[in-house]
Amino acid sequence: MSSKILTFTLNGETIRVVVEPTDMLADVLRDKLNLIGVKKGCGQGECGACTVIMNGDAVTSCIIPALKAEGAVVETIEGIGGPGKYHPLQESFMDLGAIQCGFCTPGMIMSAKALLDKNEQPTREEIREAISGNICRCTGYVKIEKAVSTAAEKIREGK
Amino acid sequence: MKNYNVVGQSVRRLDAAEKATGTAVFSSDFTLPGMLYGKVLRSPYAHARIVSIDTTEAEKLPGVKAVVTYKNTPREIFNTSATMTFTVPALKPVLDQYIFDSVVRYVGDEVAAVAAVSEKLAEEALKLIKVEYEELPAVFDPLEAMKPEAPDIHANCKEGKNIIGEIIKIPMGDVEKGFKECDLVIEKRFKLPIVKQVQMETQAAVAQVEVNGKITVWSTTQTPHPTRMILAKIFGVPNSKIRVLNPPYVGGGFGVRIGLSAKAEPIAVALAMQAGKPVRVIYSREEDFMASDTRHGGYVTVKLGAKKDGTFHALDLKAALNGGAYCSFSTETPGVLGAMGLAVYRIPNQSYYGHSVYTNVTPAGAMRGFGNPQAMFPIESVVDMMAEELGMDPLELRLKNIMRAGDPWCLPYPCQSTGLAECIERGAKSIGWERRGSLNQPGAKKLRGIGVGVGTHVSNSWPFCVDYDNAIVTVQQDGSIHLASGVPDIGTGTSTALPQLAAEVLGVGLEEVSLTFGDTLSTPFDIGSHASRTLYAAGTAVVAAAEDAKRQILEYAADFLKVSPERLEIKDSLIYITGRELGEDCAGTGVCKTGEERISVTLQELAYHAHLRNKQFIGVGRIVPENAPPWHAHFAEVEVDTETGQVKVIRVAAAHDVGKAINPVIVEGQIEGGVLQGVGYAVSEEIVHDAKGRPLHNSLHKYLLPTAEDIPEIDAIIVEASDPSGPFGAKGVGETGLVPTAGAIANAVYNATGVRFYEIPMTEEKVFRALSAAKNSTC
């Protein structure tokens, strides 16, 4: 098996990167593109820390073969906002105490963003379902759930 | 109540922005130029002797730079937990581990490690290592392991077959006589599961060994300074030549890395020494499950005696815990189990007898609550049974017997504060305790119930273990503040709350304070983050350092303003003369004329004024913390599906006496997270082993921890019974959310179904079977 060039859109930019057919997307993002916001907590798609948005859906990038991203549009935590222009989810996570150790935070925010991108008025159950694949061992999810619903409100108000 | 400017405010965490943008660096993100990747070969057997080990094929694989086994690594005996640096004489730390040994004692035990240019190559090389094992008899249950016919797992057991270290005995009064004087005695044995911290970041370390022999280790440890001491001992290097630091963030801990991060640090160092290049070792999730400390499972027996009027008169507590294959915190955990179990109620006659036992499973060590949850699920179950026998309301019985400030107790420091009665009252109100007994319609398939559990904990580990803190506050030449504390921030908010304390004492805004933490090179010695101590104990050192710096500032300012220092105060970085109207003072404008009478000066101007005269204000805090009991009462409402056996926790009211909430939102987060871990402990989490000692729950898919879809409504209630020993009255809170939860849930399940569980977790299968058995016995 030989190396291939993967071309895809990452956080709004066209990226070309050499990958091995056995590489997983999370490893390419972390190791080759230095996006350390893509966390690895299990490598088996079970903890959600590596969640990114691919073509509009939240996916666990540690079990997505990198070559599956050919031509895809991929968003990571690094692409959704930062100082001066935080995403409403980032703001509400920071303001409402939804962050503790922070290891699950990027994946959690990306799962929540995939939900809010499609549904700006999610019910409590829809929020819980959207983040049910993201394990957080610190917060008990209480403030995370509140941060997601508050961000949804902000997004609705902003329109 | 005193008004504070920064303390008591739910300011946004200072690490929030980094963590919300994905820029926060954790050990597992850390890389160095030329870094190699380390992987570990682990034992497939629960107990075996290594007859031969051949690494030649692995060494030949191109890209492999180091292979280490017991043959080429230090034969220095140690203990992965910080107990080897904590243990107070006359007790001696139990040392029973090597980096690698010629005997393996559990499935997952370290056999060899490889460093290669890629992770995949390192994994490939592991497969080329040929190991011949001679299987030895193995034992997995602590009671079985104490039997004469059980295999000896270590040779160092002085107190009895496979008993680890000392047996902990806590006597108080005369229990034998006490029980004779009781009207009612209840005795029950409880079985507790092995569970796991499952912190989100697995064990990780990056080691660099320089040509001059200096060693730097970036790792996930909760205790950088003690970890440095352990590494120094293993590798025979002076403490001063080793630097251990967090990068600076740690993806959770919950006790699993008090001391080393399992063996990530020494394996990385051993590989780096041999390869002459930096090496990173990151445990896979499966390795983290199999080869890093668990919570002690085992058996706890409670014997409680009371008078007819409900007065508790005698308590006998016994524990035999499963310590696993090596001693981590296996003497301290049963110690805390006993000490905390005996400290909740005022009972004149008490005794405790407890210890851990070696078995051939993953070593058990520290996990949030540290023995206390193992005490309180049994005790609170028996207290509820006693209430029923006495025909008393469980709350009334508890309120009658709980410890009060000033009461004698078994602990070697005084009980100076308790807000437990207030916790019980406010928690009962929140859950609607009066609804108890009228929650279910006749014939309902889903039954509701409400239960309570209470308890206490510590705010650090003194005087049980070595426990001291240092902090340095340096006023910079521009008047901003630098704070150095050796504690890490494992997610609990230390790196926000400690600056809050310093800002409050110094009278400056929080934005003026920056913190260096979790690094042995740039911070003074600190024991680290464990025992719910970080805010309480490291915070006490921070307050002392800030007060020292403030004293220096005011002394200098007194000369500057030509008044005595006692007349000066600082607010918003302005030093002013108390009682004098500031009016048109020039300090605020920054333009003061020479010779003008000054009644205030900014810290910025003063610090630079001092700098020009060769002086800097440097405050040092060096403290040994006292100790203080946080208190808590949890109320759980559950719904038991009698057709499936599922226990659904609907609501938890969690009232906690934290002394003083320095940052209330952070405190709530600690409580909520602890509650949910407690829910998992009560109803779903456990690690079970097969007949060969292989863990059946070694992934997140198999280990059933609560997800967002399992969360009850949680009402975190903060009670503030200020303790004179804590910074601004604060006590510990990190662990307490987990402590009473399982007891409250078990009591709620009993209230719902009339079936009492003596074993957790109360899984669907167990509950279904128990309900069926109860039904059959009544038919």
TrEMBL record, chain A:
EC nos: 1.17.1.5
One Gene Ontology molecular-function label: 2 iron, 2 sulfur cluster binding
InterPro entries named in the record: 2Fe-2S-bd (IPR002888), 2Fe-2S-bd_dom_sf (IPR036884), 2Fe-2S_ferredoxin-like_sf (IPR036010), 2Fe-2S_ferredoxin-type (IPR001041), 2Fe2S_fd_BS (IPR006058), Beta-grasp_dom_sf (IPR012675), Diverse_Oxidoreductases (IPR051452)
Domain spans labelled 2Fe-2S ferredoxin-type: 4-80
Top-level EC class as recorded in UniProt: oxidoreductase
Residue runs in coiled coils: none
Oxidoreductase keyword on record: yes
Swiss-Prot/TrEMBL keywords: 2Fe-2S, Iron, Iron-sulfur, Metal-binding, Oxidoreductase
UniProt-listed Gene3D superfamilies: 3.10.20.30, [2Fe-2S]-binding domain
Lineage, uppermost ranks: unclassified sequences, metagenomes, ecological metagenomes
Name of the protein: Nicotinate dehydrogenase small FeS subunit
Keyword hit for Oxidoreductase: yes
Native species: anaerobic digester metagenome
